[in-house]
Structure formats: C-alpha cells, structure tokens
Amino acid sequence: MLEIHKKIFELFNQTGFEIKADKIDFRFSEKVESQLQDLEIEYEKIREEILSVEKENLPLKIYNDFTSYLKLSEVNDNLNVLILNHAGLPYSLISETTYINFEENAENYFFKNTISFFTFIDFLKTQEIDTEEAFHFVDYLNDVSRKIVFTSLTDKGRLIIKYHNEINHFNENFNITKSLENFMNCFAEQNNHLPKFLKSSIIEYASRYEVNNRIYKVFEELNDITNSAKINFEIYLNNLSIDQIRKEYDEYKSKYFKEVSEILNNLTQKIIGFPILIATTLFAIEKVKESPLFLILLIIVILITNVYLVLLLKINFNDLSYIDTISNQDFKTLKENNFFTKHPTELEIFTKIKSRIISRIKHLAIITESYFWILGITNIAIIGLILLYLKLNYTQIFMISIVLLFTLAMSRNYILNDIENKSVS
C-alpha cells in the first residue's frame, strides 16, 4: 500500500489537477493516462484535455492539504489517507501507521490526535441519554447546531461548548490519545460516581476559554481535567478536604515552629549574655586573686555553672528530640492516608513544611551543642587561670584541665546517647 501512495503522489506531481467534491480532474497527458492504467484506476477522458477520476474509484482518500482533511465529516473511520501537502512533506496514514514523506514516523501523532478528537466528539454524543436518572453527564447535545450543554451540579448554572466540522491542528509531537483513553475509562462501571466529578472538572476548565474555542482546549487538557476529577473523587471517597488538611498542618507547623523558636530565644539570651558573664567572672578573679579562699569559691561556682550547663544541654536536646519525634509521627500519619498514597504529588507542600521543621531542629541542635562546648571550654580555661593564681604549676593545671574536659565530653556523650536510645524506643 505504501508503494501505491508513492505512485499516486508522483501522479499528482506530473500535471496540474483540481480536487472537486466527488472527483479529481487531471490535465491530460499520455504519461498521466499511462500511470492511471498501471494503477488500475478507472477514469474518464474528456476530449484531449482532462482525465477525470471519481474519488470512489481511488484506493485511498486524497487531500490537497491539512485543512481539507481536518474535518469531522472527512476523518470518520478513514484509515487510508494521503495528504499531498505541497507546501511541505506528504503525510500518509496506512492502517493506523503514520508516514511522513513515505517513511514511517511513530513519534508523529497528527493522525492519531485527529482521529481521537473525532472519537471524543462521538463519545460525548453517546453521553446525552434521555433517561429519568438524576445525573446526566451531557445534559443537552444538538448535532445540527453542534452545541453541547453541561449543567453544573452545584452552581445551578450551565456551560455551553460548541464544536465545529473543522478540527484543530493539534500538536503533532504530543499524543492526546492516551489522555482520551484515560478520560473514557472514567465511565467504566466500577467508577460509578467518577463521571460526576469529571463533569465538574470539565465545566471548571472549559469556562476559562471563549465558547467557540472551548472544545479544542478541553480536548488538549483532557489529561489535566481527568486527573483533577480523580483527585476530587478520592477526596470524596476519603472524606478528606485538602484545604482543611493544609489549614490543620499549617497550625501544626506553627506550633512546632513556636516551640523551636522558644528554645532558640532562650539560647539567644544566654549567648548575648555570654560575653558579659565572662567579663564579670574575669573582673571578679582580678579583684580577689590575692585571696585563695575566694578563688576556690569561684572555682566551685564555675563547676556548678558547668553542671547547670550540662542540665541545660539535656533539657534542650530532650525538647528538640521530642519535637522531632512527634512531628515525624504526625507527618507519617498524614502520609499514610489513602488519598496521598494514590496522589503522592499532593503531598509535596506538606513534605516541604516537614523539611523546614527538621532543618530548624538540626540547626538549633548545632547551636545548642556549640554553646555547650564554648561555655564549657571557657569555664575550664578560667579554672586554669584561677589555679595559676593559686600557685599550681603548669603540669598540674594541664592535668586538671584534661580531667575536666574529659568529664565534660563524657557528660555530653551520655546525654546524647540517652536521648538517641529514647528516640529509638
């Protein structure tokens, strides 16, 4: 059949022609007449001027350009087509296979999209059923005026979509056929309520466009329309409101952000007061450096401060661990909802919120531990300075500082290991 397409295309290139409603008139030449005979195509010779061929005698449908083919009245079930397209390359359709310049091109969806549009209109006609049932997908369809009416189930309004004999030249690189299949599957018996949501989705999308252009836009956006309907259907099945979830989760986010912020504010106040604390301590040492008793009392106060520091670290890490655990549990409960299992992309906004909470907890944990080490090491250094005033030698001061630093590190590890064990349990 492809060879016949090639030969017929060559035939049209041999001489002038005129494509009429029922026939094609070729300018007479012996070569064209010979080619018609070779192709076994019946023709009528009119004097020595015209070779007239009835279209029904041709082994395929021939169109001069895309415009003459892109009509509902032409597409129908015609699966053997040649579009001459003299402005570009010839297009052929042979048994559902597309050829461009007589070479197969599986990535071109010109014919598939065009036939799918015809199927789409034909399918909508079947949905205008005159029954006493409360729900009709298409409320009214007039094939003479080519008008489709959808009545809203909620707004008590109606939407008119006009279709025409002309078919739009859809994007040849995008396969809309799959979207149509997805759309038509919504009417399967097991999806008994889904068409109601599909109808609302069509009304929502189509109302965005001008009435004469709506049918093409609806067809092009069938995939989005169908997916939107399915999501709303799942919300209905799961008794779920996305807006309500977002509101509740936003409140949840604010609650945890507030708790984390309170910990951060407490730490910030301590960090701001840190230089003042050190300056005050050094000033006190300078004043009492001649009194061993006061120096020993200062060491005791600083050691008590370190104990307080360890307790502060434990409290802060316990709070952060608790917030982290509870926020993860809340998110896990949300994620396991059947709606989000079927539509994981709808979970993205909540995933971003959770990521922000986790990020803030991690940063605050780093700040807390940094403060612990800076204040702890500073206190050990101050104790070393006091010991120097108490006339201890450098070796003794070094050994005592190592012991204090080791004790500080052990306290830190004990606290964090204890918190990790609680989190696991």
Describe this structure in words.
With 425 residues, the protein is α+β, with helices and mostly antiparallel strands. It folds into 3 domains: 2-106, no CATH class; 114-237, no CATH class; 242-424. The chain has 14 helices and 12 strands. The strands form 3 sheets. A 5-stranded mixed beta sheet has the order 5-6-7-8-9. Helix 10 (242-288) packs parallel to helix 13, helix 11 (292-335) runs antiparallel to helix 13 and helix 13 (348-389) packs antiparallel against helix 14 (394-424). The chain is elongated, with a radius of gyration of 41 Å. The model has no long low-confidence stretch (mean pLDDT 79).
SS-derived structural category: alpha+beta
Low-confidence stretches: none
Approximate shape: elongated
Number of domains: 3
Give the overall average pLDDT.
Answer: 79
Q: Would you count the extended β strands for me?
A: 12
Separate helix tally: 14
Helix content percent band: 55-70%
What portion of the residues fall into strands of 2 or more residues? 5-15%
| Strand order in space, largest sheet | 5-6-7-8-9
The whole-angstrom Rg is: 41 Å
| Main β-sheet description | 5 strands, mixed
Q: Note the gap between the termini.
A: 73 Å
Run of helices and strands: HEEHEEEHHEEEEHEEEHHHHHHHHH
